[in-house]
Amino acid sequence: MADADCPPLDVRITKSLLGYGVIAGPIYLIVAAAQMVTRDGYDPTRHAVSQLVNGPCGWVQVANFVVVGAMTIAGAVGIGRALPPSRPATWSAALLAGYGIGLVAAGIFRADPSDGFPPGTPPGVGTPSWHGVAHFLVAGVGFACFAAAGLTVGAVFARSGANGWAWFSRVVSVAFAAGFGALATGTLGAPAVLGFTAAVVLAWAWLTALSAKLYKEVGMAQSSVSSTPRASSTSASVVAHEHTNRTTGSPRSG
C-alpha cells in the first residue's frame, strides 16, 4: 500500500524543484529586510539592495544573491517540468533560469559603494569599477529575463484559459520592467528606488505563488489515472466473486 501511494519519481523530483521556487523569494526578502534595518548608514530610499554587498557584513548579501539564485534556477527547472509542454513553457523555464543565473552573477560581481554607504563612502556616485559595471550588466540581463518570463508564463496560462493567472503574470512583467527602467535612469531619486523595491517584492510574490500553484497541481493527473485501474480491478473482483457464487450455488439449489 505504501508503494501504491508513493508518487512516481519524476513527480517527486518536480515537486522538490518547485519547492525551491516557493522558498527562494521569502528567503531573499527576509535576509535583505533584516540587513536594511541593521546595517549602519543604509537608507532604503537612497540605496539599492545590491549595495549591501559592501562593508564588513557584505558577505551576507553576497550569499543571499548566490544561494537564492541557485534556488531560483532549481525552481525554474521545476516550473518547466510542471507547465504543459509548449514553446512558451520552454522559454519560461529558460528565462527564469536566466534570472537565477543573473542573481548568482550579481553576487560574484559586487556593486560599487556609493552615496554614503557603507559609512565613509563619499556622497554621490563615484567612478564605476570594472566589477561595478559587470554587476549592472548581469543584473540588467537577469531583470530582462524575468520580465520576459512573465510574458511567456502569461502566454501559457492564456492558452489553457486561466485568464486570471495570465493577466497577473503580464502585470508583474510590466511592473518589474518599469521599476528597473526607472531605477536605471539614475535621475528619479527616492521614488525610483522605492518603486523598484516594490516591484521586486511583487516579482518574488508572483514566483512564490506560481511555484506553489504548480506544486499542488503536479502529479494530480497521474494520481487520478493510477487510481482508476485499482478501482476497476476492485470492481472486476467483486463481479467475478458474485459470478462464482451463483455458479457454485446452482447445483446445491437443485
What does this protein look like?
The structure is a single chain. The chain has a single domain, classed as Up-down Bundle (Rhopdopsin 7-helix transmembrane proteins), CATH 1.20.1070. The chain has 254 residues and is mostly helical. It is elongated and about 60 Å long. Helix 4 runs antiparallel to helix 5. Helix content is 78%, strand content 0%. The chain has eight helices and no strands. The longest helix is centred in the C-terminal third of the chain and has 34 residues. The C terminus is likely disordered.
Strand content: under 5%
Task: Name the helix and strand elements from N-terminus to C-terminus, one letter apiece.
Answer: HHHHHHHH
CATH architecture: Up-down Bundle
According to CATH, what is the topology? Rhopdopsin 7-helix transmembrane proteins
Rough outline: elongated
- The structural domain count equals 1
Q: How far is the first residue's CA from the last residue's CA?
A: 43 Å
Question: Rounded to an integer, what's the Rg over CA atoms?
Answer: 26 Å
- What share of residues is helical? over 70%
Per CATH, the class reads: Mainly Alpha
Q: Low-confidence spans: pLDDT under 50, at least 5 residues?
A: 224-244, 246-254
Number of strands: 0
Compact summary:
The protein is an all-alpha fold. It contains eight helices and no strands.
Summarize the SSE layout with pairings.
Blueprint: H1 2-5, H2 9-38, H3 58-82, H4 87-108, H5 130-160, H6 163-185, H7 189-217, H8 220-253
Helix pairs in contact: 2-3, 2-7, 3-4, 3-7, 4-5, 5-6, 6-7
